[in-house]
Amino acid sequence: MKKFPLLILICNTFIVALMAQSKLAIPSIKSYTSADYNAGSGIWDIKQGKNGMLYLANNDGLLTFDGSYWKTYPLPNKSAIKSLEIDPSGKIYVGGQDEIGYFFPDQSGILKFHSLKHLMPETARQFADIWNIVLYKNEVFFRTIECIFELKNNKIKTYDAPGGWIALSRVGSLLFASDKDLGLLFFKDSKWQPYGAIPKPGQLQTSALKVTGITAYSKDSLLLTTRKSGLFLMSATTLKRMSTTADDIFGSSLINTATKIAGNRFAVCTASKGLIIIDAQGKLIEQFSNKHGLQNNNINSILLDNNQNLWLGLENGVDFINYNTSIKHIYPSRENHVKGNAVIIFGNRLYIGSSNSLYSAVLNKQGGDMSTGTGLFTEVENTRGAVLSLTQVNNSLLAGHQDGVLNIVNNKAQLVTNGPGAWMLKAFTPSNDVIAGTYTGFQLLKAENGGFANAGKITGIYESLGNLARDSEDNLWATHPHRGIFKAKLSADRKTVLNYKIYTEDDGLPSKLNNHVYFIKHKIIAATENGIYEYDVRKNKFIPSAFYKPIFGNGPVACLTEDASGNLWFVSNQRVGVVDFNRSAKKGEFHTIYFPELTGQTVKGAEHIYPYNMENIFVGSNDGVFHLNYKRYVSSENKLNVMLTSVRAINDKDSLIFGGYFLKNGQIANAQTSDNVTSLSNAWNSFHFEYSSTLFAQKGNEEFSYKLIGFDNDWSKWSTKTEKDYTNLSYGKYTFSVKVRNNLGNASAPVNYTFIVEPAWYQTLWAVLLYLIILISIIYYFVNRQQKRFELHQKKHEEEQKRLSYLHGLEMDRNEKEIITLKNDNLEAELNYKNRELATITMHLVDRGKLLQAIKDELIALTQKLNIPDADYQFRRVYKLLSDTENGDEDWDHFAIYFDQVYNNYLATMKVKFPNLSATDLKLCAYLRLNLSSKETAQLLNISLKGVEISRYRLRKKLNLPTEVNLYDFLIESTN
Predict the structure, then answer these.
(1) What letter would DSSP give residue 230?
(2) What are phi and psi of 635, to 5 degrees?
């Protein structure tokens, strides 16, 4: 008998150990509290629409969640909603105490409640909570404990419970219900009938099980969940208990519901043990409880969403399990969450060096994604303390530890160096030498007897040197967090540092602080706080890397690791990313991908990435280690979608003009129809847009871009903002367009919302026509008025012009007369002056002639008196001079000018009319015109009086004057 307690103890130990063999990694869990959704704490049911929107049953009404915004829609009587269902048209059926109906958007896309209570019989309109709503064919069934309501053809029929309805579910083409007294029933021919063979006396009956949930197990079998009795399998002929490795859990907790999820697995919701996931054989796959990150363990409902992730409606809050994810969390210690400093896979074990010990787990899955396997982490013996690094050297595993270097053999640690603490180890192949960077310099390890022995400190340098790199010339590079980068040349036996140099700002580095050194792609690389620098051997200094500059710019880089495919994994600004050289078809091109899910998760100052292969990338974090399946991550085909969840017009207060739903032919549609364009008055010309994406697992990866067609010329820059405001828009037609993209560069199709801002009354066409009429009238009035004024002015002007013309004529006549008088006076004065001048010249000529004649007479008398012989000869020159003076042309020319001026070109006219007149003839004409005497004329012509008569006679001949014509009169008339 003593053997039985021991056997029981062994079995219990085995069961506990078996249960502990949970998944090696668990997905991330996002929690939403009642403070997030601002409603009652409990979530009773969860469903998802075609557009990805979540609908949740809550004590305060219907909740919706689009990934960014929560909204609450209460029932008219403010009762709690315990269940909901969505039909193909988009109607959201709900029920509360004394109320059933559905929510459906109106023409503005705003959810409105439509009651169906009036379709119920009068006697059935008072009822308790609706616990289940199920769509079956073209009917809708609502379950209370006392009654099931059937909505069909716009009528509601009731089915009372024999003992109390406790479950309602559709499986395939059958509708099932569970009654407290009758057990499992199915609906056929408009009535509820027992399901399965009639049990024989003593056989297990469903009425004794208190079935709380029915789901499909296989093609011809059902999985039944019971409140306290665990799980059962039922076919049309059999009912049997389903044995699972989680029966102890089910036995100690109430089961609320269950659902089938991907991979032929079942998720069972319990009231105190959280979520239990088993496979079809009953094997416990994993458990999610408050120890794993749930807010609490009482799960009322569960939803497998469109992306195969899980939503849990809790007694207090909502939890999202990113179940179908490429990034999972590995906790080496469930009880004590520790930092993950180092990771390595060695000897079919996963080792994680943490801040307090080294942990390992056996990998029971060979190849593929290791995170999907199971494993139990145990602490490696003799490793208590901070493990700083893990390095495989040939077939050995060495750990850098705060106490020195450890050699891990058969999952136990052997101390190789007893202090100082070792940061990192670097193997010097092909020899088996290993150098450790320690708190006080370098330590040499030698391979010995299948292990390693401490060969002593490498002399010549005393510094805390962590990050190590070895170049192609066997130089050892190391970093000090505050003093720069060290380059050391070792002796042949590697026991002495022959010389070393410290590289700082003077040697090209941007700073001597927080540098990391690596040997990547055959070059020494320095990851600094200002980008990547390369070591230039020729210049013996660091220079900015032209290759890495386009990738990192001047941003800080804290970790850089090259994987087997040549891709570079890094941590920059607390962001984890990879430079993928294999995604582009062109050589030399690359894609830089960041993982927002890991932002801020790495251990600052001790960042670590271990790229084992494309399906297993390990990233150290402040709480364990993250596992990334990079191959699956980049090949993810989750379709991006964007939703415009609300549009508000803003005036003195906000007005919701669009609630997030488009309608077409009475059903929810994906796009706005042309006949459903909202038109608003000009006063509502400011708008607030809210938008989101329902890819709940990628919320950190989303960026949005928007454009208001009709206002913006280009798309906005990508941003994580989920709202946009436009103010004071002018009248016109606008279309707001928004799209989303993820960190892989994939973008969704845009969603569009068109609206019209109407012109103000004074901007309408009728107003414009009125303005035109008024303007034309005003123009006509002023033109007409101006025309009349013009005509009046024209008439006055004409009269004035006539008067002025008359006065002007009078004035002109008077002026002309005055001018003529003045001209005459001037002419008379001028003529008088010229006559005086002419008279003066004439008198001068006459007087000179007299004088010359007198002189000549005196000379003749004197010569005769003196009896001068040959006097005429002697005075011939004098006589000749006197004669020349008398006949001089100069005086005549002067005389002729004045004469012509006085007598209107008399001489010129005579010359033209009578060209045969000689100069003497013209002189005689002039003297005659002056009415000079013959004597005076003789003197002027220096001839005798007889000569004057002869000259007059000749002149008459030349003028062909008859004797009866007076010469003087002819000379006057001939020039008039």
Answers:
(1) -
(2) -100, 5
Q: What is the DSSP string of 732-792?
A: EEEEEEEEEE-TTS-BPPPEEEEEEEPPPGGGSHHHHHHHHHHHHHHHHHHHHHHHHHHHH
Structure confidence by residue, pLDDT tens digits, 818-871: 777 777 777 666 666 666 565 566 656 656 666 666 677 777 777 777 666 666
| DSSP string over 809-865 | HHHHHHHHHHHHHHHHHHHHHHHHHHHHHHHHHHHHHHHHHHHHHHHHHHHHHHHHH
Q: Are 641 and 50 in contact (CB under 8 A)?
A: no
398: closest CA among 436, 439, 429?
436
Distance CA 376, CA 286 (A): 12
Q: C-alpha distances in angstroms, 448 versus 138, 421, 459, 582?
A: 79, 21, 22, 41
What is the maximal distance between C-alpha atoms in the chain?
218
24's tokens = 């090696």
Residue 255, CA distances (Å) to 228, 252, 301, 347 in order: 7, 10, 11, 41
Q: Which of 91, 603, 702 is nearest to 343 (CA)?
A: 603
Using only C-alpha atoms, the chain has a radius of gyration, in whole angstroms, of 62
- 3-state DSSP of 479-504: EECCCEEEEEEECCCCCEEEEEEEEC
Going by C-alpha positions, the residue among 356, 360, 347, 436 that lies closest to residue 396 is 347
Residues 442 and 480 sit within 8 Å (Cβ to Cβ): no
201 sits in which H/E element: none
Residue 430: cis peptide before it, omega within 30 degrees of 0: yes
User: pLDDT at position 890, please?
Assistant: 66
Q: DSSP label at 700?
A: G
Q: Any idea how long the chain is?
A: 976
Residue that the structure tokens 């943490």 belong to: 354
Within a 13 Å sphere around the CA of 881, how many CA atoms are in the beta-carbon half? 7
H helix count then E strand count, the chain: 14, 67
Residue 488 identity: A
DSSP codes of every residue in 91-156: -EEEEETTEEEEEEE-TTS-EEEEE-GGGS-GGGS------EEEEETTEEEEE-SSEEEEEETTEE
Tens of pLDDT along 838-852?
A: 556 665 665 666 666
Distance CA 933, CA 949 (A): 11
The predicted structure's pLDDT at residue 298: 96
Give the residue ranges of the chain where pLDDT is below 50.
1-21
Fill in the amino acid letter for 769.
Answer: L
Q: Given this model, what pLDDT does residue 356 score?
A: 92
Beta bridge mates, 680: 757
Residues 6+ apart with CB under 8 A from 141: 132, 133, 134, 135, 148, 149, 150, 151, 168, 175, 187
The string over 597-632, giving b where at least 16 C-beta atoms fall within 10 Å of a residue's C-beta and e elsewhere, is bbeebbbeebbbbbbbbbbbbbbbbeebbbbbbbee
Please give the Cα distance from 849 to 728 (Å, whole number).
114
Question: What separation, in Å, do the N-terminal and C-terminal C-alpha atoms of the chain show?
Answer: 183
pTM: 0.75
